[in-house]
Amino acid sequence: MLTLAVLFLAQAPTRLPDTVVIETRQATPLADASPSVSRLDVTAATESGLTTLASLLGGAPGVYATEQSGEGSVGSLFLRGTNSTQTAVLLDGRRLPQGFSNSYEIGRYRIFGLSSVEILRGPSSSLYGANALGGVIDLRQQSPLSAKAGSTFVAEGGSYGRGSLGLAFLSNNAVGGQAATTGTAISLSASHDDGWRPNGERDALSTYLKHEWRLSPNLVFDLVGSADHGKAGLPGQDIGGTSSLTDWQRDSGWLLSPGLRFQDANTDATFFWSRAGSAISSVTAPFANRYLLGRDELTAFVDRKVRADLTLGLGLTYERSTFEQFDVTTNSQTWADTHESLGVWTRADWQVTSVDRIRASVRDDRFTDFAGKTTGEVSYSHRFTKELLAHAKVGTAYRAPAANDLAYGTHLGLPLRPESNTGSEIGLRHENAVPGALSWTLVAFRNELTDLIDSNPVSFQSYNIAKARTQGVEAGLEARPAKGLRVFGATTWLDSEIRSTDYLFGTGLTGDKLLRRPSFTLTLGVEVIPNDDWTFGLSAAHLRGREDYDWNSSSRLSLPDATYVRVWLRRILADGTEISLRIENLFGEDAPPAAFGFGAQPRSAYVGLTRKF
User: Fold this and answer.
1) How confident is the model at residue 435 (pLDDT cuts 50, 70, 90)?
2) pTM as predicted
C-alpha cells in the first residue's frame, strides 16, 4: 500500500486540503475530523451518473439509503440502523423542512448544484438538537465568493421515459487577482419518469440558491434557499393484489434563510434566521389528507479561542413550528397545533498536547408540548502520525415527538418524552498528505435506543414504550494508486435487536432484528481515466441479512440477498462539452432494494449531455 501511495504522490497535482463543517459547525480540516464524518464529492458522483441524494448516500459507510420505486421516488434512510425520522438533514447548516413524522423525504432532493454532502454518524443533538438522534446530513453548496464563475447545463434521457434537465449558474465580481466581494449561485433541475410499474409516473422540480456579500474583511452576509415540488404515483406493494392504479402523492418544500458570519484570528460567529415550509397531499385511501408544516428558526453561536490550545463555544436556537392537517375529501381542517422550543448549548475544544485533543459539549432543550431534554457528548482523539488519527466518543441525542405522534392524543393523556439514544464509538481515520491519494476510516459503534414512540393501532394514541439496540463496524476507502485510476468502497456490518416485546405491535419480538436494515452491506467501485478524454467506471453494491414484515400473512420473512451493478462512461469533447452513458442494475437483479413488495428497477440505460460555459 505504501508503494502505491508513493507512486501517486509523484503524479498528483497540488490541491488544498478538504474541510468539513458538520462536526463542529465551523470549517475544520477533514484530516482532523472524526472517522464518523464523511465528505462526499458531488462532482465525482455526478460524473459517475449519480443524480439523487439517496443514490449518493447509499455508497457511504454506516448508511443504508434506498428508493422504493427507482430514481427520485420516496426514500428510506438508516444511519447505523436508526430510522429515517431520526436523522437531521440540512442545507448549508440550515435545517430543511421535514414532514409530519419528522422524516425528511430524501427522494425530493437532487445533488445537482451542490458541492459536497457531509455526513456525521452517531448521536449529535448537543450541537443540532432535535432529530439528530442517528446523525446529521448537510448538503453543501459551493461558495460564490471563492468558486469560479460559470454555468453548467445538463440533459439526460433513457429507459422508462426518464428525462431530466439541469442548469447551474454562478457569478461574482472577482476581477483578475482581486477576490470577489459578492456572488450568487443558483441551480435548477427538473425530471420526469414514466416508471416501470403501473401508476409509477413521477415529476420533480428543485432549485438551490446561495448568495454571499462580504461586508468587511471579517463579516459576510449570506442568503441560503431551496424549493422543490414533486408529484408521484404510488404503485403500492405488488403483493396480494393490493396495488392501486389511482393513488398519488404531491410533495413540496421550501427554505429561505439570511445570515451573518464573522471570522477573525480568534473568533468564529454565525447568526441566521430560517423560514421553511412543506406540504404533502395524497389520495391514498382511507387516509386522503393534506399536511402543512411551517417552521421559523433563529440560531446564533460563537466559538472563541481563549488560549492557543483552548476554544470555547456558546450557542442558542429558538424554533416555532405550526402544523395543519386537512381532510382532502371535504377540504376541512382536522387538526392543528403549534410547538415552540428553546435550546442552549456550550462546547469546549482543548488541544491537550500536540497529539491529544478533547472535545466536549452539553445542550439543554425545552419544549411547549412535551418534556425537555438535556444531551451531551465527549470525545478524545490521538494523532499517531500526521496522517493517522484515533478517535473515541460517547454521546446522547434525541428525536422530538412528531406532529403525527400528537395528532390523535397520547395514551392516558400522559406527556410524551423524546426518543433517546446513548451512543459510543471508537475508530481510526487515515488521510494522505495529498488529498484523495489514500483515505480510509474504520469505526466500531453502539447505539442504545430508549423511549421509542409507538402508537395503538386502533386509537392511534401514542406513548413511549419501545427499546432497541444497534451496533456494528463500518469502514470506507478511497485511493488513487496510479495516475488515472480511482478505487473506492464502503462496508457496514450491523447487528440490531428489539429490546421490548411491544415494539411495533407484533411485527417483532424481543431479540428480533429491526426490519429492513441489512446486516451486511458492501460497495466496491473502480474508475479508470486512460487519457484526458475518456472515463470508464464500474461499481457493485451487495446487501444481505434483511428481514421485512408481510402484513397479508402477519409474519416476518427474509428478503433475498442481492447485488446491484452499475457501469458508466464519459467522453469529453471540445469546448466544455461531455457526453455520458450509464447503465443501472446491469444484470437485472430483481430482489427488492427497499422493502418487501417493492422490486428493483429493471436494467436501465441513460444517455447524458453536459455543457460548461
Assistant:
1) low
2) 0.93
> Are 430 and 387 contacting, i.e. CB atoms less than 8 angstroms apart?
yes
Whether the bond between 13 and the residue before it is cis, its omega within 30 degrees of 0, is: no
The whole domain housing 79 covers 2-612
* Residue 56 DSSP label: H
Check residue 72 and report its DSSP letter: T
What length is written for the chain?
613
Cell of 125: 443533538
3-state DSSP assignment of residue 457: coil
Residue 206 grid coordinates = 428543485
Peptide bond into 286 cis (omega under 30): yes
230-253 pLDDT tens trace: 888 877 655 444 455 677 788 899
| Position 175, amino acid | V
**56's torsion region: left (phi>0), alpha (psi -120 to 50) or beta?**
alpha
Q: What is the mean pLDDT of residues 555-569?
A: 94
Whether the CA torsion 359, 381, 81, 525 is positive or negative: it is positive
Model confidence at 3, pLDDT cuts 50, 70, 90, reads very low
3-class secondary structure, 31: helix
Residues 6+ apart with CB under 8 A from 6: none
Radius of gyration, CA atoms only, the chain: 24
Q: Beta strands of 194-266 (E only): which ranges? A: 202-216, 219-233, 248-263
Which cell numbers hold the place of 526? Answer: 473502480
Q: Please answer whether residues 525 and 488 qualify as being in contact, where contact means their C-beta atoms are separated by less than 8 angstroms.
A: yes
Q: Which three cell numbers stand for residue 43?
A: 462532482
3-state secondary structure at position 176: coil
Q: What's the rounded Cα separation, in Å, for the pair 34 and 159?
A: 41
Per residue in 307-345, pLDDT (tens digit) is: 999 999 999 999 999 999 888 878 888 889 898 999 999
- Structural domain count, the chain: 1
**Grid cell listed for 439:** 483515505
Q: How far is CA 5 from CA 269, 435, 481, in A?
A: 38, 11, 6
| Cα angle 282-284-286, degrees, rounded to a multiple of 5 | 120
- 138: nearest Cα among 118, 116, 109: 118
CA-CA distance, 103 to 92, in Å (whole number)?
19
Between CA 548 and CA 507 the distance in angstroms is 9
